[in-house]
From TrEMBL, chain A:
Protein name: Cytochrome c biogenesis protein
Transmembrane stretches, start-end: 70-92, 169-189, 445-464
One of the GO biological process terms: cytochrome complex assembly
Record localization: Membrane
Organism in which the protein naturally occurs: Saccharothrix carnea
Span of domain ResB-like: 18-500
UniProtKB/TrEMBL annotation, chain B:
Topology versus the membrane: Multi-pass membrane protein
Stated name of the protein: Cytochrome c-type biogenesis protein CcsB
Taxonomic placement: Bacteria, Bacillati, Actinomycetota, Actinomycetes, Pseudonocardiales
Domain Cytochrome c assembly protein stretches: 107-308
Domain of life: Bacteria
Stored PANTHER family: CYTOCHROME B_B6 PROTEIN-RELATED, HEME EXPORTER PROTEIN C
Gene Ontology CC terms: plasma membrane
Pfam families named among the record's database cross-references: Cytochrom_C_asm
InterPro entries with a match to the protein in the record: Cyt_c_assembly (IPR002541), Cyt_c_biogenesis_CcsA (IPR017562), Cyt_c_biogenesis_CcsA/CcmC (IPR045062)
Transmembrane segments: 13-35, 79-98, 110-128, 140-158, 170-198, 218-241, 253-271, 283-304
Subcellular location: Membrane
A molecular function GO annotation: heme binding
Predominant location: membrane
């Protein structure tokens, strides 16, 4: 029992020692680094898979050790939990000490002021009482105590810069608060993304199923999302000559709160850098792309139009790829229908350039859209039970021979092609889509608040020096008085020298003559630092 | 938004001129460092220095000026210092011209960012060398600056142009300027700490360097100034990220490395207050922080891709 207690106490002492804190700080820095150098799942899971595939056992080994989820890994968590335990262990005694010191009087004047890092002395004819009175006046704003010593000398000990401790404690406590707020935000928040057509397409934050991707915090089950709806009426972008984007603007309407009941839609210009903040959530314009419009006229004369978003594969020219899929009309028999589904895949160029037959995009704006398409007919695999991407066709069905390519052609806007069975496919042009992100983080204002406190605390604690100065006026036998000044900066802070020099000059000014040892008078070791 | 090509051209010229002038200044400084007698010998020879630290710690330029007694090395150093001031003025002009040419804050791409950073480093150096008697070290500060500026003006050069939508925010003005200025200031303690390590390595070759104590205080003072600034820069970045990218912190590579260097600089401050870690260990930590800052500027921008690569909206 005793040894157990001793062990606990030693562990605690070890953990809260400054050395340990320093080591843990290093480990934190070291531990965070792989996250910048290796791909991370939270940012790009596709790249992680690629990396693992490219690096064989090494990739799998890193994966086992959670190197692709650094900031959620057990070891990273262990480091920061330990660091914060250490911080708490450090802060508690320091806070206690702080309150004790706040009430304590400045310490006794040391016997030998000449031994202080800063020191000056001079002689005067004024009495010790007068000298100290003047010093008291000069030391306004300092915390001072005047004391008489048994040999008739009179001293002042003065202290200044207590605010430094305050700043330092504020800083460290705010760090603690910051971490807690950050962690709570990760637990209570969510983030979802969705693509919406920019011709009046709507999205409501009423359930997880409305999203294309949704990332809930640990404590979010997706059942109680903040209610609001948005309608994207229009999108426009402007570009420089070199294709660099100059502005994005989505004209949206939204409704939340009471508006949901009475059906009011409020306008908002959604732009990059200016999210919509409503119902406790934020709505962002993340990106945009194009939806090619195809009209298919089936042999029986019926027409269908397809408007499925394609995704940009080149972020500069917005060349996009995707798959627009059709079910044949009036085929009630599932078996039959599965033989005659259609898919149009390929490349979409908002501003077409052809190199021979090869299509590419020259510019991100939809100036002259064209598509280079493959048309497939057969079974798209929608009933196969395998997950289907909306951006591509199921290659397995192609390999199995159930889906076959029946045409390949380039189409500019308005052009059409005819399949062997008489089906006509026309490319009608493009429409914009926008990708939106909804984010919810109930604690982020707390994070902000603590960050501001971190800065304030830091600025105070680094700019204010905790320093002491003592004055001793000792009466001499010949009736004169020797005045000595000593100074000490209590914290590691360069620059006390200048202040001390000015102070000691004032305190020793107007003295009749220098002290016995003239060479020593004003011998201020201005730049010597204590630490 | 049209770009004023004439102003942009003048901006490029002044930038080039600044690099050239810094280069000459660096050469002059290095000559001074090479020909000056070691600090010890100078002290023994009496107060040769015209102007300098007085016994009471005040700086009195020219008060005890005895030009005829200035050594040739010192004259070279003074010329170097004057050239450095001229270079800084030209570089500042180049930034201002670019700002007018593009009608936005002139730190929207790596070239401009690098220029602001190096300018901050030069200005910090000039300010500090008024307080500390370290002019001869100018060469060691200017050499990395000339290299950075040369790379900036060639490899990383970008034509004057408007920035893309994600950067069109007043946070660009705040976040990027604060981060680059603080990184620039941090270059100085980085150099000072490296020199400190050389000086205290015990090799005779480095005896000409100023006192270890002076280098140490130089490093500490500038770090203490830059660290809160750097913290503000990171926090402004987070505020901006909340508006532009949908979250205030997402472990983007650049955010991560900024965090890591922040932790390293915090470790430096702690080391200075921890028995057994003062002196060389602390200087190592500070040098590491500096290395990380440069790494963040180059590696993360050029090699990895993240949101900071400013490619497209998504
Ligand atoms: C996330 C972890 C931590 C960070 C980022 C951090 C950061 C800082 C910074 C930037 C300073 C500089 C302020 C100054 O020099 O006055 C400082 C000072 C200080 N920290 Fe921490 N700290 C952390 C954890 C700790 C821990 C765990 C301890 C205790 C073991 C501790 C004890 C101290 C002390 C005693 C000072 C005052 C040093 C001085 O007076 O110069 N810190 N801290």
């Amino acid at each position: 029992m005793r040894t157990a207690l001793a062990f606990l106490r030693n562990t605690w002492r070890g953990l809260t020692a400054m050395r340990t804190a320093l080591t843990l700080l290093f480990l934190l820095a070291l531990g965070a680094m792989p996250g910048a150098l290796l791909p991370q799942r939270s940012l790009n899971s596709f790249k992680v898979d690629e990396y693992i595939a490219d690096n064989g056992w090494w990739g799998r080994f890193l994966d086992r050790l959670q190197f692709f989820d650094v900031y959620a890994s057990f070891w990273f968590s262990a480091i920061y939990v330990l660091l914060f335990v250490s911080l708490v262990g450090c802060l508690l005694p320091r806070t206690w000490e702080y309150f004790k010191q706040m009430r304590a009087k400045p310490v006794l004047t040391p016997r030998n002021l000449a031994r202080m890092p800063h020191h000056a002395s001079a002689g005067t004819t004024a009495s010790p009482r007068d000298v100290i009175e003047r010093a008291e006046r000069r030391l306004k704003g300092w915390r001072t105590v005047t004391r008489d010593e048994p040999d008739g000398a009179r001293t002042i000990s003065a202290e200044r810069g207590f605010l430094r401790e305050t700043g330092n404690l504020v800083f460290h406590f705010s760090l603690l608060g910051l971490l807690i707020a950050f962690a709570l935000g990760k637990m209570l928040g969510y983030e979802g993304q969705v693509i919406v057509q920019a011709n009046g397409g709507q999205f409501c934050n009423s359930g997880v199923y409305n999203y294309d991707t949704f990332r809930p915090g640990l404590r979010v089950d997706g059942t109680r999302l903040n209610q609001f709806c948005v309608r994207v009426d229009d999108f426009d972008a402007t570009y420089l000559h070199n294709g660099q984007a100059e502005s994005f603007h989505a004209a949206i309407h939204y409704q939340s709160g009471a508006d949901l009941e009475n059906g009011t839609w409020r306008p908002y210009p959604l732009e990059v850098n200016s999210p919509l903040r409503t119902a406790g959530d934020r709505l962002y314009l993340l990106g945009h792309g194009y939806t090619p419009l195809f009209t298919v006229t089936f042999p029986n004369g019926e027409t269908r139009t397809g408007a499925t978003q394609w995704r940009p594969v080149n972020q500069v020219t917005l060349a996009s790829e995707g798959a627009t899929k059709f079910d044949p009309p009036n085929v009630p028999d599932a078996e039959q229908r599965r033989k005659s589904q259609l898919a149009i895949t390929g490349l979409l160029a908002p501003t077409a350039v052809f190199q021979g037959e090869l299509l590419d995009s020259a510019f991100p704006a939809a100036n002259d859209p064209a598509v280079a398409i493959d048309v497939y007919r057969g079974d798209l695999g929608t009933d196969s039970g395998r997950g289907q991407s909306i951006f591509s066709i199921d290659q397995k069905m192609v390999q199995d021979g159930k889906l076959t390519k029946v045409a390949r052609q380039n189409l500019t806007q308005g052009e059409q092609l005819t399949l062997d069975d008489g089906t006509v496919i026309r490319f009608d042009g493009v429409r914009d889509w926008v990708s939106l992100q909804v984010s919810h983080d109930p604690t982020q204002v707390w994070v902000l608040l603590f960050s501001v406190l971190v800065i304030l605390g830091l600025a105070v604690s680094l700019s204010i020096k905790r320093r002491r100065v003592w004055v001793r006026a000792t009466p001499q036998e010949d009736g004169r008085t020797v005045v000595e000044v000593g100074g000490l900066a209590r914290t590691d802070q360069a620059g006390y020298g200048e202040e001390f020099t000015a102070l000691s000059r004032d305190l020793l000014a107007d003295r009749a003559e220098p002290a016995d040892r003239p060479a020593d008078a004003l011998a201020v070791r201005a730049d010597k630092e204590d630490s | 938004m049209p770009v004023n090509a004439t102003l942009a051209t003048y901006s490029d010229w002044t930038y080039g001129a600044a690099v050239a002038i810094y280069f000459f200044a660096a050469v002059l400084y290095l000559c001074e460092a090479a020909f000056a007698r070691p600090a010890k010998a100078r002290e023994l020879a009496g107060a040769v220095a015209a102007g300098g630290k007085q016994a009471d710690g005040t700086w009195t330029p020219g008060l005890v000026a005895q030009p005829e007694r200035r050594s040739r090395a010192e004259r070279l150093g003074r010329m170097g210092a004057a050239l450095t001031v001229l270079g800084a003025l030209l570089q500042a002009t180049s930034l201002v011209l670019r700002g007018f040419a593009t009608e936005r804050a002139p730190w929207g791409n790596m070239y401009e960012y690098g220029s602001l950073l190096t300018l901050a480093a030069v200005v910090t150096w000039l300010v500090l060398s008024r307080t500390f008697d370290v002019r001869k070290l100018g060469g060691f500060v200017l050499v990395p600056i000339v290299i950075l500026m040369f790379l900036g003006g060639t490899v990383l050069y970008a034509d004057a142009a408007p920035v893309q939508p994600a950067l069109q925010s007043y946070w660009l003005v705040v976040h990027v300027s604060v981060i680059s200025v603080s990184s620039g200031v941090l270059l100085v303690p980085g150099v000072a700490s490296v020199l400190y390590l050389l000086k205290t390595s015990g090799r005779a070759r480095f005896t000409k360097l100023p006192d270890a104590d002076v280098l140490d205080r130089l490093a500490y003072r500038s770090t203490v100034f830059a660290f809160p600034l750097f913290t503000i820069g990171i926090i402004c970045g987070a505020i901006w990220a909340e508006a532009a990218w949908g979250r205030f912190w997402g472990w983007d590579p650049k955010e991560t490395v900024a965090f890591v260097s922040w932790v390293v600089f915090a470790a430096y401050l702690h080391a200075r207050a921890t028995a057994g870690w003062r002196g060389r260990p602390a200087a190592w930590i500070n040098s590491l922080g500096f290395a990380l800052t440069v790494f963040n500027l180059f590696f993360i921008n050029l090699v990895t891709t993240g949101l900071h690569s400013y490619a497209g909206v998504g």
